[in-house]
Amino acid sequence: MEQEDLALTTTEISRHSDTATTPELTGRTTGHADLGWAEALPYGDVVVRGAALWPDSEALIFPGERLTYAELAAGAERAARSLRGLGIGPGDHVGILMANCPDFARVAYGTTMLGAVAVLINARYQGGDLRHVVTDAEIKILVTGDQEGQPFEMTDRIEAAFADLDPQRPDAFPIASAPNLEAVVVLGHGGSDAPAYTGRRRFDAAAERVTAEEVHELRRQVPTRSVGMMMYTSGTTAKPKGCLLSHEMVVRNGIACGRRLDVRRADRFWDPLPMFHMSSVLPLIACLHVGATFISMQHFEAKAALDLMAGERVTHAYPTFPTVTQAVANHPDFASVDWSELRVVNNVAPPETLRQLQALWPNAALVTAYGSTETGGCVSFSVPTDTLAQRTDTCGPPFPGIQVRVVDPDTGRPVPAGERGEICVRGYSMFEGYHNAPELTAEKTDADGWFHTGDIGTLDADGRITYLGRLKDMLKVGGENVAAVEIEGVLQSHPAVTIAQVVGIPDERLAEVPAAFVELKPGFEVTPEELVEFLRGEIANFKLPHHVRIVTEWPMAATKIQKFRLREALCAELGIAL
Which of 206, 232, 258 is the last residue of a domain? Predict the structure, then answer.
């Protein structure tokens, strides 16, 4: 970023600087009070503001690459100039398909500086899923890249998804199967020299046709409530749906996450989760808002993660999902890491599992979260200063400005505190609707603006949210309601079990019966029969799984296990028609 632009920017953001540097206003919460005022700014302004306030501080760390705030902002500005040089303007859709890397951040922030929409694509997508997102999102330019050590080429995936794409033709775009797609940019390790693709050299050359002033003029025109990002839901039960996310929603919620998690100026926040996911987008904003350092890695591997966390002396760890957390905790090097700087750890798991994980980090506060893409990624986190029970049994109160209520799913009427029902959300964190699906948006949002999440939960007398599972995960066993999450929680309390997932499969006599899939901890052995016997004294007999399968791999969508694929596979094995 040019020095004169930085000087101009400093004036623009000076009104935010007290919030960024005054400890009392960084979100250190006493009880549930949060007296900080709401701040909303366009997504692209986040890096510009950070560069003006802390130019020489480290903003982003990856193994092998470290970026200061000034370098991150300059890289985002350069990406914006390149995209503008390739024809991207306000309202255009830019797809980002790559594993975690600094280029991901540069392109995402650069895209939104232009008033364009960054479409963050699940890096696992291929075939029909990838084709669906690129066409449904009406992507104009797709930016991808191959990182060193990646076991596949992203361009191979693109060519497999679009059979009519000839990579040897320099005039390959547009193609019939993706009529809106005008170019594929290939960055990263090596890049591609196929004539159809725009490599890094041509991408960088496009920036020379655009001035920094043009980029910043467009950036200053971006309305905070306009759509700045599109993210496709994980597809755990159906075809991915595009969620339209405003600048205000994403940035305000990132700031709210940072306040709740007590992210401060000198903190170092480790987050290995995919950058196309809200569980990376929001923590990165939380760090950039206060001048902290965000630490990630291209591909999660337990040994490398432990080395990185130990070397950087992290203050916050964000493994979040059981598959990541257990891999770290079960690694033999875990016990040798000095965790004395660690203050907050985030995990999402049943309460008993969370209590076990808290014991791994006795000097840090273990918290958990509740949310969905449609409601801003996170609606709430546990409060780090709450009791252990409040932090593990509940997801804490919603962020200030977000309303939550629990209703009877049949009548839509609110239920008393502590009573189960469907969780509904309303407030600034609401998405702008599903892309190309207004009827689905209307179906999920009632006349009073409440988004019906499809989640079962409760609110306690103090407003803390407890998540109890999905309405779709409610099994109907012989007329009895059975929550899959209840069986999963008990299974995961078994000393040999690390992850359990329960689905319902058809049954002639009972209509539906539970089936359990279980991953064991390293070095442990247990039979399906022993697991059922373990459950027998803990839950009612009608809740006992009729089938138990020990697994070593899970069908994944981003960071979520695809239960519908587990169900399909078991039904196919048993010869049960769906």
Answer: 232
For residue 342, give both structure tokens. Answer: 């660690």
Domain CATH code at residue 41: 3.40.50.980
Q: Which domain holds residue 534?
A: 478-574
Alpha helices (H) along 264-404: 278-290, 302-312, 322-329, 351-358, 388-393
Q: Are 149 and 101 in contact (CB under 8 A)?
A: no
In angstroms, the CA 534 to CA 493 distance is: 10
Is residue 146 a contact partner of residue 190, using CB atoms and an 8 Å limit?
yes
Question: Do the beta carbons of residue 473 and residue 485 sit within 8 Å?
Answer: yes
Q: What's the number of domains the chain is made of? A: 2
Which of 232, 251, 279 is the C-terminal boundary of a domain?
232
459: three-class secondary structure by DSSP: strand
| Domain-located, residue 471 | no
State the CATH number of the domain containing residue 556. Answer: 3.30.300.30
Cα distance between residue 187 and residue 204, in whole Å: 10
CB 76 within 8 A of CB 105: yes
Give just the sign of the alpha carbon dihedral 149, 150, 155, 159: positive
Torsion of CA 161, 166, 172, 175, to 10 degrees: -40
CB-based burial, 197-219: b 16+ in 10 Å, e otherwise: bbbbebbeebbeebebeebbebb
Q: Name the phi and psi angles at 293, rounded to 5.
A: -115, 130
Give the rounded distance of the alpha carbon of 557 from its chain centre: 11
Assigned domain for 499 exists:
yes
The pLDDT tens digits of the residues spanning 489-504 come to 889 999 999 999 999 9
82 belongs to a structural domain:
yes
Q: How confident is the model at residue 560 (pLDDT cuts 50, 70, 90)?
A: confident
Q: What would the pLDDT profile of 530-558 be if each residue is shown by its tens digit? A: 999 999 878 878 889 999 999 999 998 76
Out of 48-52, 350-354, 383-387, 487-491, which region has the weakest mean confidence (pLDDT)?
Answer: 350-354
- The answer to whether position 112 is within a domain reads yes
